[in-house]
């Protein structure tokens, strides 16, 4: 199992603009927490993105060797321009905000594929 004892330079990803959408969870985020993510984008998803995004949601990892998988995808739904996903936290770092790291990667992918973020929300959910 990979260690989360490394420095992650979040400021290096300031270009993503994640601070505009997310600061920190509004709920106690710990192992076993369930949360929902909703992202609304400026244009309809193309077919390739409808295939790529669920894979990213399901298999996202982080860490120096990308060996840390903090979330389990419980369910997701994509509409024409909205992603809704529910996750359970299966591993919680004491050092890093994994939700923020996750969102940096998701927003980076969306921006690289020319989607503007209209809204992003992370809320506590129940199973």
Cα-to-Cα separation, first versus last residue: 26 Å
Which residues form runs of ≥5 with pLDDT under 50?
A: none
**Arithmetic mean of pLDDT:** 90
**What value does the Rg take, in angstroms?**
14 Å
Explain the overall architecture:
The protein is an alpha+beta fold and about 130 residues long. It has a domain at about 70-125. About 20% of the residues lie in helices and about 25% in strands. The chain contains 2 helices and 4 strands. The protein has helices at about 45-60, 100-110, and strands spanning about 35-40, 70-80, 80-90, 115-125. Strands 2-3-1-4 form a 4-stranded antiparallel beta sheet, covered by helices on one side. It is globular, with a radius of gyration of 14 Å.
Please outline the helices and strands.
Elements: E1 34-41, H1 47-59, E2 71-78, E3 82-89, H2 98-112, E4 117-124
Antiparallel strand pairs: 1-3, 1-4, 2-3
Quick rundown:
This protein has 127 residues and is an alpha+beta fold. The protein has 2 helices and 4 strands, in the order βαββαβ. It has a domain at 70-127.
């Amino acid at each position: 199992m990979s260690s989360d004892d490394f420095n992650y330079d979040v400021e290096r990803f300031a270009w993503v603009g994640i601070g505009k959408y997310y600061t920190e969870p509004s709920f106690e985020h710990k192992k076993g927490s369930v949360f929902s993510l909703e992202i609304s984008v400026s244009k309809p998803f193309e077919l390739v993105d409808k295939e790529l995004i669920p894979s990213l949601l399901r298999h996202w990892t982080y860490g120096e060797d990308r060996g840390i998988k903090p979330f389990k995808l419980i369910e997701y739904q994509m509409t024409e321009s909205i992603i809704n996903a529910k996750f359970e936290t299966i591993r919680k770092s004491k050092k890093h905000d994994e939700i923020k790291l996750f969102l940096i990667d998701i927003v980076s992918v969306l921006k690289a594929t020319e989607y503007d973020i209209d809204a992003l929300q992370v809320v506590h959910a129940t199973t």
